[in-house]
Every structure is written in structure tokens, then in C-alpha cells.
Amino acid sequence: EIPVVILNGFSCSRLSCLTRFLLERLYQEGYHARAATDLTDARPWDETALPGSAGLDAFIARMAWYFACDIILLGITPYIPPDTYENVSLWIYGDEGSESLAINAPSNGQVLWAAGMPDSKVYKLMIDMLT
After folding, report:
1. Which of 12, 47, 50, 64 has a beta carbon 3.0–4.6 Å from 36's, enabling a disulfide?
2. Which among 93, 100, 113 has a CA at the least distance from the CA of 10?
């Protein structure tokens, strides 16, 4: 029941900045959000690293169980098609993703193609799509 947003296909530096920006804006607007990424040296809560695509459903379930939060953000650098996981509310794809695959794949959740979009616009569209 907790919305899960996957940030996928962004460069490491853009994913780091975007995740930090989205968390800050969510907190400013009163949302309690948690995030995890597969970036080097990123340590989500008590995990050593986000497991990438393998074991993602179990990771989402553990985060949802462990935290009483409003939104979960997961940043994964390699491309994952949107039909892979059932517990994802919104897929946000970036510059490194495959636009043609993301647009044409059947989706479990909504898809936002954010290539070249400023972080503030990504945030606004994310909130609009989740509410």
C-alpha cells in the first residue's frame, strides 16, 4: 500500500542528486519518505546495498514492513523494464534508460520518461502521478 517509485536508467551522479532532491522536497511537503540506491557507498537503513534487480520484491517488502513511511524511492542504475515487478507504483526513467523499451513495455504501475527534465519538474510530475 506504500507507493514505491523506481528511479531507473540515470547516471550515478544524476541518480544521487535526484534522489537527494526528491527526498528533500518530500520532507518539505510533509511526506515521510525513505530511499535506497545501488550506488557505491550508499547504505540504505540496515542493508549493505540495494540488491539491484535480483531480490527487489523482497527488498521492497522489507522496507515497507520496517518503515512506516508514505513513499519509498529506489534508485537502480541498470535498466529494468517496467513489467518486471508488481509492487511498483511509478517507474521514472532517465537519460541512460531505453526510452523505446520503457514506453512499449507493459507496465505494472505508471511510467514517466524524465530524460533531460529538471529535478523540480520530475518532482512535480511524480507527485501528480501518485496522487
Report:
1. 50
2. 93
Could you tell me the pLDDT band of residue 69, with boundaries at 50, 70 and 90?
confident
| Number of helices followed by number of strands (H, E) in the chain | 4, 5
How far is the C-alpha of 71 from the C-alpha of 98, rounded, in Å?
Answer: 25
User: Do residues 59 and 47 make contact, with C-beta atoms less than 8 angstroms apart?
Assistant: yes
* φ and ψ of 72, to 5 deg: -115, 125
Q: Residue 51: helix, strand or coil by DSSP?
A: coil
The SS3 assignment for 74 reads: strand
Q: How many CB atoms sit inside 10 A of residue 28's CB?
A: 8
Task: Give the pLDDT of residue 46.
Answer: 43
Give the list of residues 6+ apart from residue 110 with CB closer than 8 angstroms, or none.
89, 90, 91, 129
CA gap 75, 56 in Å, rounded: 11
pLDDT at 47: 44
Say if residues 94 and 11 touch (Cβ distance below 8 Å).
yes
Q: Are 29 and 128 in contact (CB under 8 A)?
A: no
